[in-house]
Structures are given as C-alpha cells and as structure tokens.
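Example 3.2
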Amino acid sequence: MAELKTKPDTGSVQDFLDGVEPAERRQEAKELCALFCEVTGEPPVLWGGSMVGFGQYSYTYASGRQGEWPITAFSPRKANLSLYIMPGFSDYEPLLAKLGPYKTGKSCLYLKDLKQVSREALAALISASVRDMRQRYPQ
C-alpha cells in the first residue's frame, strides 16, 4: 500500500500562515486558526505542508489500511478556504443554513470570503463536528 503523503510535519504553522498569499487570504487564515484553536481547545499542527489540523484520530478501513488524520482542519487556498468537517454535512443542515455562502464536497466546506460567513454558525459547525468525531473515535 502507498504511504499517505498528508501527515503531521514539523513545519511552523505561524511561518506557513505568514506565507499565505494574497494578504487578505493570509488574514482570513489567521482568523480561522484562532477560531479553530478556541473551538477545539487543540494546538494547530501543520499537515502535509499546506493544511492546519487540530486534534487527531486513527482510522482503519475495511481493506485493513490504517492511518491518522486531523479531527478538523483548514487549508487557505487561493480560490477558497477549504475547511475539513470530517463527519460530512448531513447532520449539520440547520447550521449550514445560518452560515452564509459556501459550497461543500464530501467532507470539505469551501468558503470564498470569510467576511460573508457567520462566525457563530461556523464555530458551532466546527464544535459539533469535533464532538461527533470524538464520539466516533475515542482516544
């Protein structure tokens, strides 16, 4: 089996955030980092050089493949802020309705502009997803 490329590394989260371009995206990334720290109670860890993760869980697929992944994370990309809401979104529709403009993938929440997003709804979404992940994957 191929080894996962995205794993915790020793890079500095602060250096990574300081290097995000453009400047507006850098500021949004720093705001998100503070919000994730506050909501999760976890320190930020750089994963794969481009994702800031909070907490960690171990998983095993039916195939036997095992790995580690952050309980929640974000990546400040040029086109969008990508937030990793690991349980997916089916249980969080009431919170999403209060969030503001967004798009989703399977476990990714894509935000174009953090200024248009309700911080309260975002904090509640992160909190609910972390709670659910901790229940599913107790340490």
